[in-house]
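hey team, just a heads up i'm posting the complex here instead of the shared drive bc the drive is being weird again. everything in one block, sequence lines first with there labels, then the predicted structure for the whole assembly after. its two chains so it's a bit long, scroll down
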Amino acid sequence: MTNNRDIIKFLISLGLFIGLLFILDQILGWSFQNLYFRQKVGQFYQTTYSVERSNQDILVFGSSRAVRHYAPGILSKNLGLSTYNMGRDGQMIPFSAALEELALNRHKPKIIILDINPWELDISPEKFEKLTILLPYYAKHKELLKYIHEISKFEDVKLLSKTYPYNSSIFVLAACTLFPRNQGQDDHGYVPLSGSISQANFNQILSMLQDRYAKIKGKENKMDTLARKYLVQFLDLAKKDQIKTYLIISPTISKDYFKWDNQLKQKSEIESIGKQYANLTYLDYSSDSSFNNHPEKFADQFHLNESGSKEFSQILVQEIKKREGK
Amino acid sequence: MLFNSIEFVIFYIVVTLGYFLIPDKGKWLILLIASCYFYMAFVPVYILILLLIILIDFWVGIQLEKQENPVKKKLLLTISLFANVGILFFFKYFNFFNANLEIVLNKFHLQPWFPYITILLPIGLSFHTFQAMSYTIEVYRGNQKAEKNLGIYSLYVMFYPQLVAGPIERPQNIIHQLHEKHPFNYQLMSMGLKTMLWGFFKKLVIADRLSIYVNAVFNNPKYHNGTSIVIASFFFAIQIYCDFSGYSDIAIGCAKTMGYDLMVNFRRPYFADNIQDFWRRWHISLSTWFRDYIYFPLGGNRVRRGRLVMNVMIIFLISGIWHGANYTYIIWGALHGLFTVGYIFISPYLPKASTNPIIKKLQSLIGIGLTLVVVTFAWIFFRANTVEDAFTLIRNLSSFGAKPFIGDRISNFAHCILAILILFLVEYKLEYLPEKFNLFTAKNRMVRWASISLVIFLIILLGVFNGGQFIYFQF
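-- predicted structure starts here --
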């Protein structure tokens, strides 16, 4: 029968082709793995260091606002405690929770700083999709599975491919491998931003925020219960290991920033969660007049620039000294 | 169930295996059950709407064939069209119509109470109602025999590969295939899988990647300069093409693996050298639907100039509103109508194609460039969230010079450029060198396998796997 011959021919071809794909996938995956874990600079190196080697007294967690706002050099020098900034651009509380779990399995720091933003408790699937940056570490750290399942329920099926963990990383890997000197050098995870906002630009930002507020004012802003769960998990883990924890909302360009962003409900939720932990100090710098309406201290509407972040780090040092009785 | 999901991959393997394992007599039944399951994966209860459309049109089809009285035949056709358009109107245009009526009446200081419905639009409604209407129209015209098997007719409306986003099939092309035997065919299986693979590449590597940049600009129109808007508009032109033609490729490939031949829906539209040519290459199944069932009955081209302009504008305005109950789509349709009318009027005065091959190529290149510019301009309205946003974007187009927006990661922008470059090379080869560099269909197995593997690994390494919905699902 031609039909049966066709089926057998097809199944043989398909089997051989899948075999070829499997071999190619192993080779490619192995090559990317080598390239990825041999990085000496850049965001992949920083994440690998955070996951596998961070052993400092103070560990800073959070989003890009953590990466840009906390200068480990200043904290270390003034507090006499080694510091590493484990923040990562674009990431939110689920990533901080994953990183904390991995780090605490290996090492107990004296102080944990979690920089948090109210919008991290907003409903947004992106915060879970962005956990794909953990995929290269799954092979060695199976405890990441629960975080990986937040990306999608079939994520571990996709991980049958050895190449898939390196999805969307080709250009960054190529740039960091071929031009390592062009990549900005970090200071223990801290990557300050240069430049500042002009007064005209600041006025434009304020008007944009107010315009948006007029549109969203009074609208119900639902809480992401899953993100809230990860925040509680983060704080519980630090409490379990009796680590002094600072839950911080770092400076914003305007004291009304979170009001205009319809985030007051999330902000007060963070504060009330924080109050439940005896080992925790909640610090809110979002209405600190040293930074509000000071566009010269900001590189963009979300982030302090280098001088702003160094000033903020100094303020934080004084606060920690006061609290720790140093 | 989205094509770009693991659920679909599992569904496809199970259904295709089942399809080839069971005897010929039951093949339509397994496809019908699979199609019901596929549709119910979105909002299960909406299957009842489909069922209603199917029952009405099935009955109308049989009655039309029996009936010889032309007045009664017309009445039967009207019942079918009224039912289909009525359902479409209720779910898609009811709120839009009410909102506009309310505005008009308010101008006259009348404030009646208007009901608004707050239910989700059934997925792909515009596609399967149009496919259903083409059946009753063709039976009415005598071009298609009425289908006597309710199961086969249901499958005609519900065939899962093209159920939610086309191609919008004609009964003459598909119903006879549903009656025929489709034994396993190595060539068709291989061709179908390769077509699906290219569709996945277009969707995951190109459309979903470009959407990241496009969304960032179009969702914040006030804060982007002309350079960023030009880039975003061009990216959207590519995104919507790859999103929709990617879906069509997956649908066509999926049907082909089971031995069914669906109509071609896109033929490299951005190589069109004038606006009419663009519409011969873009969403062909919808364009030809409008041509056959509205444009020709209105008189087509064989009418006076004034009537021709009206016919063209009617078609494009309906095409615009077909896409959604929003003025952005209506303006998009109107713009295409104006471009087409403009082209009809100026084309007799345009220089004829030169005999000199270099000048001929240059003429073609200018035509392609100009067509791309006007089509991309119209896409601004199609993609903008509101008409106000579209005009803000157009106003900001003049603010060139400032640094363009790159996005939060430059690597994403680099991915976009690479994806467009790959698309251009493939489309160029298909358009101008159809017999050369046939990688997927090369005689040498190593070349074939190497090229297929390359596309698979490009998808794994460059694809966006966040399950982005296909744009045309909303229509």
